[in-house]
Amino acid sequence: MARRRKGDAVSGWINLDKPRGLGSTSAVGRVRRAFNAQKAGHAGTLDPLADGILPIALGEATKTVAFLMDADKAYRFTIRWGVETATFDEEGAVTATSDARPTAEAISKALRAFVGEIDQIPPAYSAVKVAGERAYDLAREGVAVDLAPRKVTIHEARLIATPDPDHAVVEITCGKGTYVRALVRDLAVQLGGHAHVSQLRRMRVGPFAEASAITLERLEELCDRGAPLEALLPVETALDDIPELAVTAEDAFRLTQGRSIVLLPRQVETLRAQRTRTVSARHGGKIIALCEMRAGRLNPTRVFHLT
Q: Are 267 and 238 in contact (CB under 8 A)?
C-alpha cells in the first residue's frame, strides 16, 4: 500500500518575487509550508545575492517544470567597475583591481559583441558539473576548475544607466544557460579592465514577469488569512507556447488512463500547421495531459490529476 503524502493536494504556480539574501531552496520551502503543499519545486535557480522572479511549482504543476527550464529570461544588473572578485559578484574575495572606468559609449558598443549566439565559459563558482561534482564545490575547496565554453544566446543587451563612473546598469534578455557573471567578466576584459556584479535582478522567466509577481511576505499574509488561491496561477501557465486541443469526455478518460487517442484528420492538419508534436489536451476547462502526436494519434506523456 502506497504511503499517503503529507500536506494538501494543492496544484499551481507561484510567481514569486524572491528577496535578496534567500536561497532558491529556502524560498521553495517557505512557499510549500505556507500552502501546506504535498509537493513543490522551482524552475531555474536564483542565487541568494539576486532577487526577482522565481517560479515555484506546487503539486501537479511540478510536471511542467521542464518546459520552463528552456524559457527565455530577462535580467537587470549593476556592474561595479575596477574590482574583480573570485565569484564575480559581491560574495567573493577581491582578486584584481584596475583604474579603467569605461564610458557609456564604450559600454554600449562593447555590449553589441555579446548579442546573438556566443561561446561563454561558465564561472568557476557555478552549478556546472565536473566529473559528477558541482564546480562551485570544487572551487571552494581550492581545486582548479577548467570549464569548457558553451553556446548561449543573448537576444538583447542594452545599457540603462551609468549612475557614477564606478557603476553601470545593464538589461539583457537571454536563453537558457547564460551566466550574467560570466558576461560581466568578459565585458570587462573587452573594455580593458576588471569588474563584478554588485546587484542582480531577474525580471522575467518565460511567461512569469514582474507585473504578476508576489512577494514572500504578501504570499504568507494571504495564506495566514485563508486566501492562498488568490496568488495561485494555473498549472498550464508554464505551457503558454504549447497548443491546446479540446478532447471529449471519453478521450479525456482514456488519456488519464495512459492510453492514446485517435485524432481527426482536421486536428492532425491543424497541429502540423503549428509545427509541433507536443499538445496540451483539455476537457471542461482543465488540462488533462501533455501528449505527443505520432501517426495520427495522441500519446500521453504527462497526465494531470486535478480536482
A: no
